Write a sequence for this structure.
């Protein structure tokens, strides 16, 4: 009887440990699938509207550029401290919303192998699943005197998002796929700032800038990590080899590695318990 109880205990322990270890991996895979599905649905809806003649790209670009020109100089809020950027600004919500789902386009960072939908606003619902555009910053359509801010979480156990953004260095690139064009940005600076210090997010005269923004340090989130890029010509060949090896990826996003290590540790612990139990049973 005791032997059967011991076996059941070991099996339950193993399954409980395995479930905990698999959760981040499975959850991240699910989120990757969901993000790919969002992008796929967006592309499908846009493609159908293009075929039906319902989208006028030049007008969409002009509308976004007019919006950017009309933005008043102001101190931008911190996107994580101020999550109530409203959806009541009809002019803002109508720009770059050609599929009607709030997606502006996508941000692709080849080096860390992520592609995320960019939604209007940085409210909690958006940042739990994708990247958000900070309302009040320039729309991400490029052009002189623009500075768009794209935010995403870092360190969510269920999704990678911007977790590996700290791996980006000066000279690396990221892409914005907006409307019918791809905009390429080369990183020229990174900075860690206090949440209230938003001077680095301001428009700089004559510059075409985009800043990727997330929380830091990992798991503490007391500061903000800014990775800024300036617009450069898009040359796909130049980005072909821009990818860090898996060995250099953050441990936090090496989900499969953690599962393997965790299974080995759990198996080792269970083997220890099993041998200990057998030893006790052999003792007189």
């Amino acid at each position: 009887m005791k032997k059967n109880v011991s076996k059941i205990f070991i099996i339950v322990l193993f399954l409980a440990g395995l479930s905990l270890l698999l959760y981040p991996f499975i959850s991240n895979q699910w989120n990757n699938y969901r993000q790919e599905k969002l992008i796929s649905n967006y592309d499908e809806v846009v493609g159908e509207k293009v075929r039906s003649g319902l989208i006028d790209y030049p007008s969409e670009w002009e509308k976004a550029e007019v919006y950017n020109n009309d933005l008043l100089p102001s101190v931008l809020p911190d996107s994580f401290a101020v999550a109530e950027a409203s959806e009541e600004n009809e002019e803002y919500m109508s720009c770059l919303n050609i599929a009607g789902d709030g997606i502006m386009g996508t941000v692709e960072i080849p080096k860390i192998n992520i592609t995320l939908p960019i939604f209007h606003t940085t409210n909690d619902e958006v940042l739990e699943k994708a990247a958000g555009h900070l309302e009040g910053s320039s729309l991400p359509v490029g052009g002189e005197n623009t500075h768009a801010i794209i935010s995403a979480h870092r360190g969510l156990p269920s999704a990678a998002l911007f977790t590996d953004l700290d791996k980006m260095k000066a000279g690396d690139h990221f892409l914005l796929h907006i409307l019918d064009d791809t905009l390429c940005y080369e990183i020229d600076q990174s900075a860690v700032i206090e949440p209230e210090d938003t001077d680095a997010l301001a428009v700089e005269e004559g510059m075409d800038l985009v800043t990727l923004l997330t929380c830091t340090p990992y798991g503490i989130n007391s500061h903000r990590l800014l990775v800024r890029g300036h617009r450069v010509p898009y040359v796909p060949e130049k980005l072909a080899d821009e990818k860090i090896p898996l060995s250099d990826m953050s441990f936090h996003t090496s989900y499969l590695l953690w599962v393997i290590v965790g299974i080995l540790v759990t198996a080792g612990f269970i083997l220890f318990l099993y041998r200990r139990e057998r030893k006790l049973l052999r003792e007189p």
About this structure: The longest strand covers residues 181-193. Residues 56-253 form a domain with the Sortase; Chain: A; fold (CATH 2.40.260.10). The beta strands are 103-109, 114-120, 131-133, 146-151, 173-178, 181-193, 208-216, 223-232. The CA atoms of residues 144 and 206 lie 5 Å apart.
